[in-house]
Write a structure and sequence with these properties.
The chain is α/β, with parallel strands linked by helices. It is built from eight helices and nine strands. It binds nicotinamide-adenine-dinucleotide.
Length: 255
Amino acid sequence: MDLRETVSFITGGASGLGAATAHRFVDAGGRVMLVDMDAAAGEALAAELGEAAQFVAADVTREDEVTAAITATQEAFGSLHVLVNCAGIGLAMRTYGRQGVHPLDLFERVIRINLVGTFNVIRLCVPVMMRNTPDLEGERGVIINSASVAAYEGQIGQVAYAASKGGVVGMNLPLARDLARNAIRVVAVAPGLFDTPMLAGLPEVARISLGKQVPNPPRLGQPEEFAQTAQFIVEASYLNGEVLRLDGAMRMAPR
Ligand SMILES: NC(=O)c1ccc[n+]([C@@H]2O[C@H](COP(=O)([O-])OP(=O)(O)OC[C@H]3O[C@@H](n4cnc5c(N)ncnc54)[C@H](O)[C@@H]3O)[C@@H](O)[C@H]2O)c1
């Protein structure tokens, strides 16, 4: 797909990887709808990006709010071709720790936002993508999901997060197969350690030390490098049903 011809719906678009993707897509001539629960950050970024961007507040787990956000996208830009799912939360909690057993509601909350929310937005965007006239490559839409290397090497305290991202990896191929006849591709990215607000809570020394664990290049990933990969996925028509690790060859240790 040619980004200049696309409207992208970017969840988690107010921060980190989603915000960097919005910047890159607008720079490449695309139009974007930023979808996030953080209205202050989302509106500020939309204003910065100008006419090619708008913001709508929505919780990805809510059918009514996502439906309203999709309607707002159609009203603003006429269509929707690319979905980038970046909304997500982290959690550090052991199965059994000093505070006792892992509270079930916290486990469910992470699954609900990272996995159920991702699927919710996909299922609601697909009928809109299906209405697109196929482009020169015959494509109607592209869906990009955020997994994580934690899907493969979840660390101590990442049981809920790793399970949620394992779900994103697991549904990738069946989604691509389900949507093949609709000419919609599905590709997931499994980032390693990226320098976003999600990691900003850590002290500077810890972030530098984490970066040094990456074989090559020995540093944290920059959000722009996720955005570069997202652009590649949109443009590479033969790429489908795959999960791309984006991690500088890092394999997470138990802690
Ligand atoms: N940063 C990393 O190192 C890293 C590594 C692997 C995977 N990821 C994944 O990439 C995605 C983006 O991460 P990030 O680092 O940019 O995080 P971030 O915290 O900077 O941004 C996440 C955004 O999602 C929004 N959000 C949270 N819950 C939401 C909900 N229910 N509905 C709508 N919006 C919601 C937040 O408001 C925030 O703006 C996440 O799914 C994360 O798990 C990040």
